[in-house]
Specification:
heterodimer; A: Alpha-D-Glucose-1,6-Bisphosphate, Chain A, domain 4; disordered C terminus; B: alpha+beta; 3-stranded antiparallel sheet; 13% strand; flat; DNA-binding transcription factor activity (chain B); HTH_ArsR_DNA-bd_dom (chain B); WH_DNA-bd_sf (chain B); DNA binding (chain B)
């Protein structure tokens, strides 16, 4: 039987930089590549595509050292410069859809900085069957990705 | 959603506690070893360890004078692990975004 599990979460973060600076890190390929993924000995990029505009798509596929292939397929639905981004994305694990999520990113001026509100609604599918332990491994590896980014 | 996810996520919504969980991903460590990586006072650090313990993410065990922390394998279904992973990956990305923006500021100051 196919089931769908639903979840919603909100992440509320503050950045020292202005909404325009934070927005630019989402809007440009060079900027986004610096924090959304990065070169790593554990992960080889297989495919990357970046088209940041309403109706545009973004893909990122990588192969982990363990052999697991993850793929992120995103489409942008609403963009208000320096202020709001709405997108939907599907994650695939070894070719199987595992979740479909709908997100809004709101950038609110906060003094000289920015308050970022990330709200994400998820529908979790069943592509993760028997992959529990592998998922945990991905989580730990994922964070290591950040450590290799040049600061 | 089960309360365990909310408790785990609340515990992971803090950079110190995320760093502790990441460190424990490499294997068990004593509280003093873990605390060595941070500048905060020991009582504050212990508070963080207690939150992780309360959320079921970390187990601690005292042998003599040494308290050892171990990452608790989450007794969650794969879907729950994946939901936590989406949240945690997003938090971790915003940590990296903050570092990237700060690095840009430094480049501009020196450039």
């Amino acid at each position: 039987m196919a089931e769908a599990v639903h979840d919603k979460f909100v992440i509320d973060r503050r950045f020292r930089q202005s909404p325009a600076r934070v927005f630019a890190a989402f809007a440009t390929e060079e900027g986004k590549a610096r924090w959304f993924s990065g070169p790593n000995e554990l992960w080889d990029m297989v495919d990357r595509h970046f088209d940041f505009r309403v109706g545009g798509t973004e893909h990122l596929e990588g192969k982990w050292q363990s052999g697991t292939v993850t793929r992120f397929d995103c489409s942008y639905h609403d963009i208000v410069p320096d202020s709001r981004i709405v997108y939907a994305y599907r994650m695939k694990l070894n070719g199987k859809p595992i979740s479909v999520n709908l997100c809004s990113i709101e950038l609110l001026p906060d003094g000289e900085g920015t308050r970022l509100l990330h709200t994400e609604h998820g529908i979790y599918l069943d592509g993760y069957e028997d992959n529990g332990s592998r998922l945990h491994g991905i989580g730990l590896q994922y964070d290591k990705l950040g450590e290799t980014l040049p600061d | 959603m089960p309360n365990q996810i909310d408790a785990a996520f609340a515990a992971l919504a803090d950079p110190t506690r995320r760093a502790v969980v990441e460190r424990l991903g490499d294997g068990p460590a004593s509280v003093s070893e873990l605390a060595g990586g941070f500048t905060m006072a020991m009582p504050s650090f212990l508070q963080h360890v207690r939150v992780l313990e309360g959320a079921g993410l970390v187990r601690t065990e005292k042998q003599g004078r040494v308290r050892t922390c171990t990452l608790e394998p989450l007794a969650l279904a794969a879907v729950e692990q994946w939901i936590i992973e989406r949240r945690r990956a997003t938090e971790a990305r915003y940590d990296r975004l903050a570092k990237f923006l700060d690095a840009q500021d430094q480049e501009n100051d020196h450039g």
